Amino acid sequence: MSVEAHEIIPIPQPDIVGKEESIPEAARRKLSSPWASGLVILITILWTIPTFGLLVTSLRPPEQAQNSGWWTIFTDPTMTLNNYSEVISGGSVIPNGIAPYFFNSFAIAIPAAIFPLVIACMAAYAIAWIPFKGSTFVFFTIFALQVIPLQMSLLPLLTMFNKGWSMGPITVFPDLNKPGTEQSIFVGTYIPLWVAHTMFALPLAIFLLHNFINQLPRELFEAARVDGASHFLIFRKLVLPLTVPAIASFAIFQFLWVWNDLLVALTFAGGTPDVAPITAYLANIKGSYGAQLHLITAGAFVAIIVPLIVFFSLQRFFVRGLLAGSVKG
Amino acid sequence: MTASMRRRGAAILVGGVAASMLLAACGGSSTTSESSSAAAPSASTAASVAASAAASASGGAVAAGCEAYAAYGGNEGTKVTLFTSVLPPEQQRYEDAWKPFEDCTGIDIVYEGSDQFEAQLPTRIAGGNAPDLAWIPQPGLLAKLVQAGGPVAAPQGVADNVDKYFNPAWKTYGSVDGTFYAAPNSSNMKSFVWYSPKKFAEWGITVPTTWEEMFAAADTIAAAGVKPFCGGIESGGATGWPATDWLEQIVLRQFGGDVYDQWVAHTVLFDSPQINQAMDTLAGWMKNPDYVNGGFGNVQTIATTAFQDAGKPILDGKCAMLQQASFYAAQWESFKPGAVVAEDGDVFAFYLPQIDEAVAANPVVGGGEFTTAFSDRPEVQAVQTYLSSPEYATARAAQPGGWVSANNAVPLDTYTDAIAQLSAKYLTDPAGVFRFDASDLMPAAVGAGSFWTGMTAWIGEDAPTKEVLANIDAAWPAS
Fold first, then answer.
1. Which among B89, B120, B330 has CB closest to A93?
2. Whether A155 and B86 lie within 8 Å, measured CB to CB
3. Around Cβ A71, how many Cβ atoms within 10 Å?
4. Are B113 and B87 in contact (CB under 8 A)?
5. CA distance B27 to B16
6. B192-195 and A165-167 as β-strands: parallel, antiparallel, unpaired?
């Protein structure tokens, strides 16, 4: 230790640029050594074993999945696709197939990813590039809202949807009931879910996009202004295309978060097939006989197909340099 | 938590005849024919079920099959939501059972099961999104919800049904502060002793019908070199609950329903002469080194044996008897694939005998869930009344599975499962004394806390009786 420290300290650092370039290269060189590669492969294998075990379990017949570990597959390779057919189309344990829940998950997750992005993009641009009094205060207030755990707002929000919300004489949110009943018009719809997910996503979305948009080169905006572009035009023609990588990565995060959400869905939508997402289905799959390991795992693998597709189709946005090609050209 | 224990209990209960159910549950059409043929033998209620099942088979348009549901008319096209902790495949059995009702009345019962039931229900009520009906598994939870506001009192029709068809104890468990809220849906029976009919024949014993006979049988078995009783109370965070059941059985049998109720209300303390005496009785039974722990070892092994595994030695003849609830029927299949639970099968259960008929005749400790309404719309009241009626209970009992109703108008031969039938026999005994599982009625700090840990220490560490009881008393929350 002491020898290394002694070596590191006296190394002369000629300038800041040289340091910035050498570190990634050094890291790349070190990480591509055979030892490092071996270590990475080892970690990857260890990391994947549990998932592999789940995959194997999802392919085993029910009795074996209940009575022995998945590793016995190597000595007793019995495989079946029955679990998947039961999960997809229903069977003796689960009366209904996964299809309506799958549809619900899309119907919840896609709008719940688009709404916050649209709002957050505009908000982030406004805070970053439209000078107005108190913009810093607004930004920090939004930033601070992130510390509020969403669990705290579940009940007030649910009450607001179902009973309305008034502050003294002012009605902030009306109590909207279906005609002739005392039931709120929001019961059995996706609307509370969209609104809730949008609200929970906004602080982080605005924060991330603001930091990104804020760092766009000032020259671009000045040039656009000189050419007579309005804020809307700048936003549409300049900011949006340049922000695509940030938008895409946040869209992935938000979509995956909503897709995997159970708590918000159970609170606002409940577990009936007309609105419940796939996570509610998975939670109930184990049935009243206790763990249906073979079905839960099969259901889980059906459910992760969509996140995998989303991730692989958009992953280049993660990898791509954030500003590549936008200013240099 | 008691909640988790209950859920596990319920899970095993309904799994009671898992094997036969899974086979029998292949199609809705087979269950319909089953219900009509099973209900045929007796009683006008059963006949009406059969008739309505036939009506639904022919499209449900014929009013002729719907006489039984005339009282629920005038609610066509309405929806009633029902929120429960009961998940598939049980859900399907319920929906099959009330299908004729739905077809005749035009009320759509929207079923929603959730394994987060206990957490979700209070949230929904507070958020103004309460379901119309919910099956609440504990009287304590019902009382808590009533205090917070939400449940609405049961209509007269439900009260009449409960008065007419259920043991009077059920009405008190469905009431809070004198107002009646909920009729029981399903029930379970905890006063069973599991045994192997074949081994009993080998040892030359018949099924005991009195407390003395049970211990005479135990002595005979002990003389043959086998520890007659086995037990296991390990259950993760709920370790100890089977031992609380044992004590409850004895308190009810030795001192009767009144002392039991006072014990639950903490006017009879744990460290009272009665409970001390009950503990001594239990010590002579489940802490008696001559009697336990068959197939496992000494007395202390009871505390470390999982309650699920406790009955395994019965199949090997290393233990003769296990006191455990009706839902334990689900376990045998896991010990021995294809195990037959029947009077002439691999394993069966007999009723844990009464101690003194003058104190408590045919006492039963059990549990159940209560159909609670959160709305007084006419269609909700119609469904709530229907769910307390013999027509519903009979239709549901005719479905495959271990479902039991305490409704005494359900003909016993409706039940498709031997243990369910035996449970129903004792739950509906007009002379019998029924009491709800005491640990589920006590405050959670005791009923799901110090009572469990105290009994575990009493068995596992041989803690002195008086000290254990005093510690449980000390944990009782001041009110």
1. B89
2. no
3. 11
4. yes
5. 20
6. unpaired
Same fold for the pair B2-189+367-435 and B192-362+442-475: yes
* Contact residues on chain A for B112, CB-CB shorter than 8 A: 270-272
Helix H segments across B311-359? Answer: 312-316, 332-335
The CA-based dihedral angle spanning residues A195, A198, A202, A204, taken in that order and rounded to the nearest 10 degrees? 140
Task: Check if the beta carbon of residue B402 is closer than 8 Å to that of residue B415.
Answer: no
CATH of B192-362+442-475, one of 3.40.190.10, 2.60.40.10, 3.40.50.300, 3.40.50.620: 3.40.190.10
Assembly ipTM: 0.72
Q: What span, in angstroms and rounded, lies between the C-alpha atoms of B350 and B193?
A: 5
Please name the residue that has the structure tokens 């029930």. Answer: B187
CATH number of the structural domain B2-189+367-435: 3.40.190.10
pTM for the complete prediction? 0.77
Q: CA A47, CA A42: separation in Å to the nearest integer?
A: 8
Q: Specify whether the CB–CB gap between B93 and B399 falls below 8 A.
A: yes
CATH 1.10.3720.10 fits A99-319, yes or no: yes
d(CA B463, CA A1): 55
Residues of B with CB under 8 A from a CB of A: 8, 10-12, 14-15, 18, 22, 25-26, 81, 83, 86-92, 95, 110, 112-116, 120, 123-124, 126-129, 330, 337, 375
CB contact A47 to B (< 8 Å) = no
**Chain B: residue nearest A175 by CA?**
B128
Please check whether residue A266 touches B, CB under 8 A: yes
Express each pLDDT in A115-172 by its tens digit. Answer: 999 999 999 999 998 889 999 999 999 989 888 888 888 888 888 888 888 888 888 8
Domain spans, chain A: 2-80, 99-319
pLDDT digits 0-9 by tens, B59-102:
444 467 788 888 898 899 999 999 998 877 788 889 999 999 99
Tokens at A170, concatenated: 């002012």
Pairs of CB atoms within 8 A across A/B? 94
Among B108, B111, B129, B135, pick the best mutation site for testing chain A contact (most A Cβ within 10 A). Answer: B129
